[in-house]
C-alpha cells in the first residue's frame, strides 16, 4: 500500500484553519469527515480525548456537529480554542494591524529583548533573527489578551518556524545546516517579511464563518475523563492518540510553548511530557527506571514483545509497557462515556523497536474488546514514509 497523501497532514495544508500550525503527525481531515458523515449516533455529540491540534474538533465545527475534546497540554488547548473561535471583522482587522506593528518592530530589531530559556537556542535562530523575533514578541506581549491577539500569536508562531533552522522533512523535527552568514539587519528584515506573509492567510481563514455548533475544549487527562463533567454521553469518538514511537509532542512544540509562556525551562518540559501518554522526553525518560509496572498485562500478547525489546533496551521495554498501561486506563475510563450503539475510531500507527514490530493496532483492538466494546475492526489506511514495515490504521469498535 503506497502512502496516500490525503490521509496525512499534507492533505490539511489547504484546508482553511487546519493549516494554521503544523504538527508533523497530525492526521487527515478527510478521514474525520468521512467518519462524521457515517456516524451511527448523529443525535449525540462527538468526543476527541486526544485533542492535539484540534483536527477532529475543527472538522466537527465546520460540519455543524457538537464536539468536546480533551488535552493535557495547555498550549494545545489554547490552539484548539483559537481554531474554532468565531472572529468578528473588527477582531480580524485588529489582528492585521497588530501583525503590521509586530513586523515593523521586527525590522527595527531589539538591542536587548526577552528571549525564552530554550536549550541551545542558537541552533534555532541566528542573532539577527532572535533580535527581530524578540522585538515582535514585545509588541505582542504588550497587547491585551483577546481574539485579535490570538490571531497575531498564531502568525508569530508560524514565523518562529519560518525563520528557524528547524526542518520538518522527517517524522521528527531536526535542524538544517546554518547556511551562509547574513547580517543582523538582513535577518531582521526576513523575520518582518515572514510575519507580513503569514498574517493574510490567517486573517482570511478567520473571516470564513463556521456553522453553529458547540465546540468545547477541556484541559484534562485522557486517562481520567472527569473533567468533561458528569453524565455526559457521546455517540462517536474520533481520535488519534500519541503513537508508541517515543516521539515527543513537547519536543516538537517547544518553540511555541517557550515563547508563549507555557514552558519556563527543561524541567517543566520533562514534567509535562511525563503526564502525556507516550511522553518520555528529557526528565521523563529517567522516571521510567523507577516506574512500577502493573501485575497484570494491559494487553494480551504484549509481555513477550516487551521482553524481546527489553533485551536490547530496558528503558524502551518499560516505555512500551507503560504506553499500553496508560492506554488501557484510558479505554476503560472512556467506555462509560460512549452511549449504547455509539462507536469509537482510533487513528494509530504500528511501531518498530530494533527487530520487533509492535502491532499497536492489534493490541489496541484487544484492549477495546476487554473494556467492553464489541466488534473491534482494523482498517489499514496508508503506508507511512519511514520504515517499510510501518503503516497507519483505523481501529474501530462499537458500544454495547
- Roughly what is the average pLDDT, rounded to an integer? 91
Helical percent range?
40-55%
Number of strands: 11
Structural class: alpha/beta
Backbone shape: globular
Q: What percent strand? A: 5-15%
Query: How do the SSEs run, as a string of H and E?
Result: HEHEHHHHEEHEEHHHHHEEEHEE
How many angstroms does the end-to-end distance come to?
33 Å
Uncertain runs: none
Task: Quickly list its features.
two-stranded antiparallel sheet, 44% helix
Structure in words:
- The structure is a single chain.
- The protein is an alpha/beta fold.
- Helices cover 44% and strands 15% of the residues.
- It is built from 13 helices and 11 strands.
- The longest helix is centred in the middle third of the chain and has 24 residues, at 184-207.
Give the SSE map:
Layout: H1 29-37, E1 46-48, H2 55-63, E2 67-71, H3 74-84, H4 89-108, H5 127-141, H6 147-162, E3 166-167, E4 174-175, H7 184-207, E5 215-219, E6 234-239, H8 249-259, H9 266-275, H10 283-287, H11 302-312, H12 314-334, E7 338-349, E8 351-353, E9 356-358, H13 360-371, E10 374-383, E11 391-398
Helix pairs in contact: 1-2, 4-5, 4-6, 4-7, 5-6, 5-7, 6-7, 8-9, 11-12, 12-13
The gist of it:
The chain is α/β, with parallel strands linked by helices.
